[in-house]
Amino acid sequence: MVAAFAAAKVNLYLHVIGRRADGYHLLDSLIAFADIGDLLTAEPSPTLSLEISGPEAAGLAAAGDDNLVLRAARLLADYTGTTLGAALHLEKNLPVAAGIGGGSSDAAAALRALVALWRVSIGEEAIYGLGARLGADLPACLHAHAVWVGGIGERIDPAGDLPQAGILLASPRRELPTAAVFAARSGPFGEAGRFAPMPEDVFGLSRALMSRRNDLTDAAIGLVPEIGAVLARLAQLPGALLARMSGSGAGCYALFPDRRAAEQGRAALAAAEPRWWCAAGSLVAGKLPCG
């Protein structure tokens, strides 16, 4: 059996800096990962199958065979020509369509696990190309390390190791399709916000991010007003250094000095808003384990 962790993806900031002639928006973002996520396992099998369990499994029921994990598996099999199958199991802990990369990270985990299980040879450029065919966040999730993202998501540059930090993720459990948020966005385009060097501690990182933003926040709140309530709650938690929306979904994050402070924040948030989804952990400072 091969196991791969599908970490939550967090856009620490996200600037929309332009739009291509084909309608796709150009982005500038710092993507990080948290040690909060889903777990995918793959075992040898004559056929390809997927079983989903976990607290957020119901959110994927409607996807059926169009689930990103199965799409990734079929894409890899077609590309490599393998006739092998796999019994895949996904423990789903992240809510769907929340802007924290649940589906993309799951698909990236499937690609990593199946390359190992099937022992197929595929170069880095090729697997990144397969990932890009599944979604704009896949290349970053395959990289499994903090990255600067440009273009429409396909341009990936390593951001170096992040400082140790606690993080709290929260969602009002309202799905928010990416296309709807981009369609609702208005106003001028922003500018790139990359900074160097990477701050040495969470306080420096929070200060650097204070002058950055998520350019999709106003559009998202217009579609799902509860996002504004989530951000307000996070910002008011004791020890919270920064609260932002992540990506284009309803998921938000807050940075804390350490994991313990984030877990205390989660307990307070869960008590105040029991219907919301929330989870606490740490930012992944280095590279994620790939299996």
Map the helices and strands.
Blueprint: E1 2-19, E2 25-45, E3 48-53, H1 68-80, E4 85-91, H2 102-118, H3 124-134, H4 138-143, E5 147-150, E6 155-158, E7 166-171, H5 178-184, H6 202-210, H7 217-223, H8 226-236, E8 242-245, E9 252-256, H9 259-272, E10 277-282
Parallel strand pairs: 3-4
Antiparallel strand pairs: 1-2, 2-4, 2-5, 5-6, 7-9, 7-10, 8-9
A few lines on this structure:
The protein is an alpha+beta fold. 33% of the residues lie in helices and 28% in strands.
Q: H/E series, N to C?
A: EEEHEHHHEEEHHHHEEHE
What structural category arises from helix and sheet content? Answer: alpha+beta
**Mean of the pLDDT scores?**
93
Task: Specify the number of helices.
Answer: 9
**Which regions are unreliable across 5 or more consecutive residues at pLDDT < 50?**
none
N-to-C span:
10 Å
Strand proportion, as a percent range, falls in 25-35%
Q: How much helix is in the residues?
A: 25-40%
Q: Main β-sheet: number of strands, strand sense, barrel status?
A: 6 strands, mixed
Total strand count, please? 10
Q: What would you note in describing this structure?
A:
There is one protein chain. The protein is α+β, with helices and mostly antiparallel strands and 291 residues long. Strands 1, 2, 3, 4, 5 and 6 form a 6-stranded mixed sheet that branches. It is 33% helix and 28% strand. It is globular, with a radius of gyration of 18 Å. Helix 1 runs parallel beside helix 2.
